[in-house]
Each structure stands twice: as structure tokens, then as C-alpha cells.
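Hi D.,

Good news: the full-assembly prediction came through. Inputs first.
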Amino acid sequence: MSGVETVGGLVGTTRASSEATTTPTAAEAVLELRGVTKVYGGLAALGGVDLSVTRGEFLAVVGPSGSGKSTMLNVMGTLDRPTTGSVRVAGHEVGGLGDDALSRLRAEHIGFVFQHFHLASGATATENVADGLLYAGVPRRERIDRARGALDRVGLGHRVDHRPHQLSGGEKQRVAIARAIVGEPALLLADEPTGALDSVSGAAVLRLLDDLNAGGTTVVVITHDLSLAATLPRRVRMRDGLIEGEVLR
Amino acid sequence: MSRRRPGRLSARDLVGLGVFGLRTRPARVVLSALGIAIGIAAMIAVVGISSSSQAALARVLDGLGTNLLQVTPGRDALGTDVPLPEASRDMLDRRPDVEQAAGVGRVPGQRVYRSDRIPAAASGGITLDVALGDLEGVLRSEMSSGTWFGDASDDLPQVVLGSTAAATLGLDRVHPGSRVWIDGRWVAVVGVLAPLPLAPDLDSSALVPESTAADEFGWDGRPTRLFARADPERVAAVRDVLARTVNPAEPTAVTVSRPSEALAAQQASEASFTGLLLGIGGVALLVGGIGVANTMVITVLERRAEVGVRRALGARRRHIRDQFLVESLLLSLLGGAVGVALGAAVTAVFALSQGWPVVVPAWAAVGGLVATVVIGGVSGLYPASRAARIPPTSALAAA
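Then the structure:
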């Protein structure tokens, strides 16, 4: 517990800096963290974080490994609950929701993109993308139609019936992005989206995210890649479970 | 948007997920389904072969008729053998509810030999019996070679051999001039009977006509066994009065039986053996079910990342559990379907090789499939509940 207390001493400064740099109104906030801590077996992975993401923003959460970014992602994506503090996603207070309600929240409001794509290897691009709507209760026909539309949006309209092993790394990540946005989520969370790609494919994926953001999607990218983060309008820097600073461009 | 039903997956979606899960691991699916398939195939084959054999027996009994009654001498109260009266066959014939009556009379002390060179001790256990009346017709017997007694073509007395007796004597086929040696004289063999399912002990008899028996071999004229074809509508009633008919003086010293019942009883004793084989099939099925559970546990361990992704996409615990449960059910059902087909094929091959009709009871096939559904469900329960407990963060943890 001493770890928590030690870090807790820094909470005030963190909060102060975040309040100084972000001025969203509550109504526009897609994501709001207030005094969020996450403690694993006495060690604080998050030591009291405040963060507010407004609709239409494109921001990076950067920091070295062990800085708490992954835990941030889990908490922001409602995959994990904070030990203390409040998390609001698309106006829903996560703390008051049960497991089923959280699942529904993810199905309807959050899209995930993973470093290693996590596509189903035996399924076509369309089937993979359609899975993004499976748990939102969308009928099958509509899922397939919307999946084709989403693949079009990510520039893979010509690859709808390809299977993952027939696609390049960059194409796989674009399929994964299509899966994340097919449900029109309020928030798109991307965990090291370019981490497994060469620089050319990585740049293309980043451009795609930028385009999606320009189209209105709120995007949060978690990365340790500072040069990638440097291209984004807002950067939140993490260190030792705390937000160390923030840059707005 | 009105058709959205969050929180529910349609049966089709669940089956799609299950099929997909199986399709991506074909080798493992085939091997674990094989366990179930062998168990079900064993059970279906046991039931099928037993049913086919019963159908074959029913067909035989249909041909032989179930209205045959057999009358044999019994014992009196003191335990003394009481022979049937000489006139007993005529008494049977006189009953209106007896359609046809025949009998045999044992000629004691006579042996049948292949030739006059065979030592007297090597008789082969063949007995000499007298055929009374239309024995061939009453038993609905068929000749495997030659003819029933006909016109004497030469001066020798005539004999018809039962199937076992003929085989013992090496006379499977009758030729003009086929002879056997009985009581110091040659007797012409005119025919060989096919096996008699309703009177199997006559298979080892040599049968001679009534006149020959009295004239040549000193038969005393007493029948030792009578056969009656009863009116099919009144078999039971006839059976009850037959003892009094053949021996009014001592009806209790007469035994009346129905040979078709003996055949059916034999079948029943085979049924208990079928039960044992079914038990063995059940054990095989249990082992197959454990194989499915094992496969599913490993599958769940390997697919933590997939579960994590699905949870991130919004799957509830129940969706994950149902997905793996359906996968287990499909895996088991696949094995069951293959097993039913395999069992039916084994039954068909075996039954056809025996000349039986092929019978695979519908209840066995349906029961087999239901059993596999139950096995799949039980086997999948634990792995599926484990899968449902995999935390949503697993997609990220599995880098």
C-alpha cells in the first residue's frame, strides 16, 4: 500500500496539469477519467489519473513500457475496472454497471484495435469485420452489408473475401480497424496499432486513423512510439502510473 | 434498428460460431469425434445386429408357422415313463381344431452305418425313427437333396436322412445307388432333409416309413413323439386339451410344447448378451465423451486471446459460454452422426453376410444422437464455463 500512497502525493499536480490543459464541457466528453487508480497486489499501476476526451478528438497516450498505458487502455475500454475513481464512457458511469451492461457498452460504444490484429484466421475479411456487430444484436444480413461498407471505408473494398493469411500486415490492421468502426463507436481505442508493422504500412494505418478522425471518429492511440505520437494533435505522456504531462498542438 | 436484440445471439449465429471453431482445427476435431463415433457405432451395431437377427428369426418362424404343437411322453406320478398310446396319432387327427398331425416312433437299438465294413461301435449316434403320417408336410421341412419317400424304384427298403445324420455318414448329396447299412441289410437313401428348426433332434435321425419299420426292423407301433398343426386361431386352446386327447387315461403323463416358443426363448437369452455388449459400447461412449471434454479444455486454453477479443467486441460471459458449449455439442453430434452411419453400415454388412434382413431400429439411431447431444453438453459444460471466466483483458495480455 505504501506504493499507492507515494504516488498519491503526486495526484494533485497531475490533476492540476490536466485541468490546465483540457477544457471540455461534460456534455461533449466521450471519455472521462476522474481520480482513477488501479492497484495490482499492492502495486499501483495507475496512481490517480484524470483525463477527459472530447468528441472528435485524436490523441495519443505515450509512455515507456511499465508506465501504466496498458492499464489505462484496459480501464478506458472498460475491460477492467478501476480500484478507485470514476470512469465515464459515452455518458455511462462504468462503476455502476454489471458485467453484462459493460459488455453492451463495449458492443455499442467502443471499438478496439490491437497491435497483433487478432483476426480469426479461417474467416474472410467480411466475416471478421461483421463480428464487430455480432454482440450488438444486429441481424446477420445487415452485419454483412455494413461490414462491406466498413471495408470500403478503410480502402479494402477489393479484399472482402480474402482471408487473413492472404493479406499483408497493413491490410490485416485495416481489417481490424474496419471491425472496430463497423459499429460506429463513440470511441476508437488503438493499442500500438503500428507496433507490428513496417514503417510504410504503419504510416498508412496512421493516415487511415487520421481520415477516420476527420470523419468524426474519436480516436485514442496508446503507444510507446514518440515519433508517431508527435504527429497527433494531442499527446498525454505517462510515467509510473501517472499522467506526467500533456501537449496540445 | 428495431430488430436489434442486444444480449442475444440467434441459434444460427451460435451454430455459425461453433462450426467456425471446429473448422479451423480439423485434425483435432476428427480425432476427438472419432472417440464418440466408435462408441455410438458399437452400440448401433449391437442393437442393429440383434434386431436383424430377430427379424431373421421372425421371418423363419413366419415360414415355419407358430401353430405347431409337439406331444412327447411324460412320466406318471411314480416317475415311470408312460409311452404314448398306439392310437394317439389317430386321435389327434380326429380333432376338428387340428389341421394336420404327424409323428415319429423311435426304433430302439438300431444303428445306421455307412457300409457293412464299419465296426458296430462306430455308429455316429444316428438313431432310426419311423415317420408317421405326413411328417414332412407338418414340419414344413425341405429336402436339401433327393426326395421324400416315393415309389420304390428297387427292392431295397428306403430311408430319408436328417441333415446331421447325412453329414455324419458323408452323404450330403443323394445319388442313385446311395445306400446305408441298417440292422444287417442295405437300405436305399432317397433323400436328405434340410435342418429342421422346429424339431432339431430329428436332424440326427434316419427316417423310415411306417410299413418298412414294422416289417423290417421290428418297430412296436408306438409313436414316441407327435406333431400337430393347430388351427392358428386356437393354438392355446388346443394346447390345453391335447394331453387329454392323446392319452385320456393318463393326461398328466403327456408333455405338450410349442417348439416356436423354444426358438424365441433362445433369442431372448441372446438378448441378455446384447445387454452386455451395449454396456461395453456405453463405456466406449463415456471415454469418447471424456475425449471431447479434454479437447474442449485445450481449445479454451489456446483461445484465451480470441475470447478476449470477443469480450472486447462486446460479448457477454453468456455468449462465450454458449459459443463453446455449442462447439462441444457440434463436435459430439458430428461423432454421433458418423457413429450412427458406421454402426448401420456394420449392421448391414453383417446381416447381409448372414442372409438376414437389415434392421437398424429408428429408436436406436435417434437414441444414439440424443446420447451424443447429452455427452456433448456435459463434456462442454466445464470448458465453456472456464472460457466464460476468461477476463476481457486477455486480448491485450496475449501479445
